[in-house]
Design goal:
Blueprint lengths: L2 H9 L2 E13 L6 E12 L2 H15 L8 E10 L8 E10 L13 E10 L3 E9 H6 L5 H15 L5
Antiparallel strand pairs: 1-2, 2-6, 3-4, 4-5, 5-6
Length: about 160
């Protein structure tokens, strides 16, 4: 996250935010799946307020159809997957536009939709984006609830006590 992102989070109620980022990849080429997350840890006064503010900021900054841009689709939906406690999670579809397809790339989409989720609790706020090349290539929809479950598992894995 940029320094201005961190300042925005402080304005939204995150005290002394420290940023974190990770990217995970499984497979290659047409079978590649990726999972990226970025967030902060610190003291969060009102997790739902910060989660909603993050979605509002993403919507405000979306390029609504420009190449290389992300556009949110619909409204965030709240999820509580098994094992997800003491926090709030909302997920929403996002569309990424990649620009024009090279000649000879017939049948290759120039955009794809994928779920993204934002979670918040009293010590962390983060967003995660999942993509699946095989699903994208075949036009298969990726269910929000499936990604919410993966994000809940990720949250369990990345949260540790700060000493």
């Amino acid at each position: 996250m940029s320094s201005s992102d961190l300042k925005d989070l402080e304005k939204q109620g995150v005290s002394d935010p420290k940023d974190v980022y990770a990217a995970y990849q499984y497979g290659e080429g047409a079978s590649m799946q990726t999972f990226n997350y970025s967030g902060v840890y610190g003291k969060v006064d009102d997790p739902e307020k910060v989660v909603d503010a993050m979605f509002a900021e993403m919507e405000k900054n979306s390029m609504n159809g420009s190449d290389g841009a992300m556009k949110l689709i619909g409204e965030p939906e709240e999820f509580t997957p098994d094992g997800f406690e003491n926090g709030i999670m909302k997920c929403q579809k996002a569309e990424y536009k990649m620009g024009e397809v090279d000649p000879g790339g017939e049948g290759i989409p120039n955009s794809f939709q994928t779920p993204m989720c934002v979670w918040g609790d009293h010590s962390t706020v983060a967003y995660a984006v999942y993509s699946d090349a095989a699903a994208t290539g075949s036009g298969k929809k990726i269910a929000l609830e499936n990604v919410a479950t993966q994000v809940a598992n990720l949250r369990d894995d990345v949260r540790v006590e700060v000493k």
